[in-house]
Specification:
Blueprint lengths: L1 H22 E18 L10 E17 L2 E16 L18 E12 L3 E8 L20 E9 L5 E12 L17 E14 L4 E9 L6 H4 L3 E13 L4 E14 L8 E13 L2 E10 L1 E2 L9 E2 L25 E12 L8 E11 L6 E13 L4 E12 L11 E11 L1
Antiparallel strand pairs: 1-2, 1-20, 2-3, 3-4, 4-5, 5-6, 6-7, 7-8, 8-9, 9-10, 10-11, 11-12, 12-13, 13-16, 14-15, 16-17, 17-18, 18-19, 19-20
Length: about 425
């Protein structure tokens, strides 16, 4: 009888195993990026016999996601190797060279548990977070080592046309990697701890999506330069599009926010943010024009010369030109007037799409009537197949007058890269 029971039990397990196996899914993560980046930088800073830098780096990501029903576990490692390190990575001590913020590193990029249904997604652990246009919170995907957050995030979509997104983050894993903070680079640590709250409420209408947001940043670090990033920002954003025909579409976006100091910030200030952009798609051509203001408070206390609106957790490379001259907003603030054109070919032989774009920026201060400079950007990208993409890119920043902020120098940057994603 015991033998029969054991055999029956084994049969039940054998019959159930295929069903269980089918319910467990595995999705591999394999990504690679090979990049050559060069920088030619004129005086006044850094002062060196060699103001040129070259970084040849390769970035690898590997991992996977195991899911069953609404639950998923994701783990992903990330590593960057410098094949040519004639550059200042920000943490390698080569401070006489221009900075290219791709340090060598090996780290755990993401480790998260997720519960996901149609109305609700909950993510806990080290994760990638991109909110709205990434102006305030993003993964900094352009850099080889991306930014991730140790956080709990809730996304609720159970009410028609409404999305509520709330994140509590206890730390940001920065782009500076495992050597963060070395050689005196205390303002570029591996990890920034704190109690950060990111909240957005978005309501979709026929004309576009209206989003209210609150970003409460607490950089709980002993470094004064990081403490100054602690702030509270409240604002609104509206973005939408209107098609006129199958080949003509108008898109638009506008934002406003108010930022003040918070928690242990030694600076007392208040500053405004405003942005507006129009885009016109006509067949294969897209025209864009926009304006962005990061305001300055001349009466800020606790720091000489005033203080300006900052977005320390943003994907900053997306904004204010690809030369990255305004990763930290100058004390006198920033006004960015820009325009661009993109031409896209869906197919180019057996490859495609092919996209070519150019853009121009004029940078002025918010106060004191300073014209910082102008920038000219160009990019060409081609998808070679479903997994491989090639890109070349150029940025040329031309300073006007005297140097108006740290790092204000004529700068030319060039990139060539290949991206692979499995």
């Amino acid at each position: 009888m015991r033998i029969i029971s054991m055999a029956l039990g084994a049969s039940v397990i054998a019959l159930a195993a295929p069903a269980i196996a089918q319910d467990i899914l595995f999705k591999p993560i394999v990504e690679a990026r090979l990049r050559v980046e060069t920088v030619e930088q004129d005086g006044p800073a850094p002062i060196s016999e060699d103001n040129d830098a070259t970084a040849t780096t390769i970035r690898l990501r590997a991992g996977g996601e195991v899911s069953s029903g609404p639950f998923a576990l994701l783990a992903e490692s990330e590593g960057t190797l410098a094949l040519d390190e004639h550059y200042n990575s920000g943490v390698n001590g080569k401070t006489s060279l221009p900075i290219i913020a791709d340090p060598e590193t090996v780290e755990l990029n993401r480790l998260q548990i997720q519960y996901r249904t149609k109305p609700l997604v909950v993510t806990i652990g080290r994760q990638r977070i991109n909110l709205d246009d990434q102006r305030f919170v993003g993964a900094v995907g352009w850099r080889q080592n991306e930014q991730s957050f140790d956080a709990a995030r809730i996304e609720y979509m159970g009410i028609r046309n409404l999305k509520i997104d709330f994140t509590y983050a206890i730390a940001a894993q920065t782009i500076w990697g495992i050597d963060g903070g070395r050689f005196g680079a205390t303002n570029r640590p591996t990890r920034i701890e704190g109690s950060n709250l990111f909240a957005t409420v978005a309501y979709a209408t026929k004309a576009g999506t209206l989003t209210g947001f609150a970003y409460l940043v607490d950089e709980d670090e002993p470094v004064v330069a990081l403490q100054r990033n602690s702030s509270q920002t409240f604002g609104l954003r509206f973005a939408g599009a209107r098609p006129f025909s199958k080949t003509v579409k108008l898109s638009y976006a506008a934002s406003y926010a108010r930022q003040t100091d918070a928690t242990d910030n030694p600076v007392r200030y208040a500053a405004d943010y405003a942005a507006a952009e129009l885009g016109l798609d006509v067949s294969k051509i897209r025209l864009t024009a926009g304006y962005e203001l990061l305001g300055s408070d001349a009466g800020a206390t606790g720091i000489a010369g005033g203080y300006a609106f900052q977005t320390p957790f943003a994907t900053l490379h997306k904004f204010n030109g690809w030369a990255d001259k305004f990763l930290t907003t100058p004390a006198t603030g920033l006004q960015d007037y820009y325009a661009g054109i993109t031409y896209t070919l869906p197919k180019l032989g057996k490859t495609g799409p092919l996209a070519a774009s150019v853009a121009v920026h004029r940078y002025d201060s918010d106060r004191d009537k300073i014209h910082y400079g102008d920038e000219y950007d160009a990019q060409l990208s081609l998808k070679l197949d479903k997994r491989l993409t090639a890109l070349v890119k150029y940025a040329d920043y031309r300073r006007k007058g005297i140097a108006s902020f740290t790092g204000d120098a004529d700068t030319r940057k060039f990139w060539a890269q290949l991206d692979y994603a499995f």
